[in-house]
Amino acid sequence: MPPLTSPTTPVAKYIYARAAENGKRAQCQGGAKNPAIVLPDADMEMSTRILADSAFGCAGQRCLATSVAITVGGARDEFTQAISDAAASRRVGYGMIEGVEMGPVISAESRQRISSLVDKGVSEGARVLVDGREKEVDGFRDGYFVHPTVLDSVAPGSTLSKTEVFGPVLSLMHANDLDEAITIVNDRAFGNQASIFTSSGGAARQFRHEAIAGNIGVNLGVAAPMAFFPFSGWSESFFGDLHAQAHHGFEFYTQTKVVIERWPNTWSRTF
Fold first, then answer.
1. What average pLDDT is seen over the chain?
2. Structure pTM?
3. Where are the domains positioned within the chain?
4. How far apart are the first and last CA of the chain?
């Protein structure tokens, strides 16, 4: 288990302060930076399709979107080419048109922020493999579109490796072995989700025990696929007592009562 964290964002601090004043529980969802490890023994076609859906689905605007893919050893070249092809071929446009796979981001400000973070990544040494900036969609020139973007060789510790983009941007990082990859996974402030793609039960077991994240996926790009699934963000991805979904959600809003009774014929100290 990671150490408990104190709220650092203004919103989280405000919620904590108001809850403390009223003697109430606090609950605040934080940001995310969700990594996925791809091992050489993974089904590369399946893994690519799943990770493309996770990274670019909803234009990357969801708290469990995969935003970092970490290849291990021999998976590097094959996965890099496959995910680049998937990003470049994804159809972007108005979501009500048949065949469109990805729509716009939510606002002009969001589009600008995403582009700025990509620029920052390039300035820190990342290499753009698929560039989704400054592209238009026919018939929707005023839409807030950012096409799928893939950056290679994103350095651990860089801005892009730690900042939530909340857009269709996938950063590629590379490791020599699983231990190094897990170290990269755990080198971040957030802890919503982490995934691994492999055919090895041993590798999956090591990952689910060592990865610092509240939601763990094995051959899954989104580790809470339905709204009613448990959602267990860790570290700076969550502040509070109980989480918002599944049984924790019910318990958060429930005032419990404990009743203890005895009906003895004769008094005794023994229970």
1. 85
2. 0.79
3. 31-252
4. 36
Sheet containing 127-130, strands listed edge to edge, beginning at the edge strand earlier in sequence: 127-130, 149-152, 169-175, 66-72, 34-38, 193-197, 215-218
Residue 72 tokens, joined: 């291990």
Q: What is the pLDDT of residues 248-257, one digit of tens each?
A: 666 766 666 7
Which of 267, 260, 231 has the alpha carbon at shortest distance from 29? Answer: 231
Helix (H) or strand (E) holding 213, with range, is none
Per-residue pLDDT tens digits for 46-92:
999 999 999 999 999 988 899 999 999 999 999 999 999 999 999 99
What fold is seen in the domain 31-252? Aldehyde Dehydrogenase; Chain A, domain 2 (3.40.309)
Q: Which of 125, 49, 122, 128 is nearest to 90 (CA)?
A: 49
3-state secondary structure of 58: helix
> Which residues form the catalytic set?
63
Integer angstrom CA distances of residue 178 from 54, 78, 148, 155, 194: 22, 17, 27, 17, 14
d(CA 127, CA 34): 20
Residue by residue, DSSP assigns 77-129 as: HHHHHHHHHHHHH--BS-TTSTT--B---S-HHHHHHHHHHHHHHHHTT-EEE
Q: What angle do CA 137, 143, 145 make, to 5 degrees?
A: 65
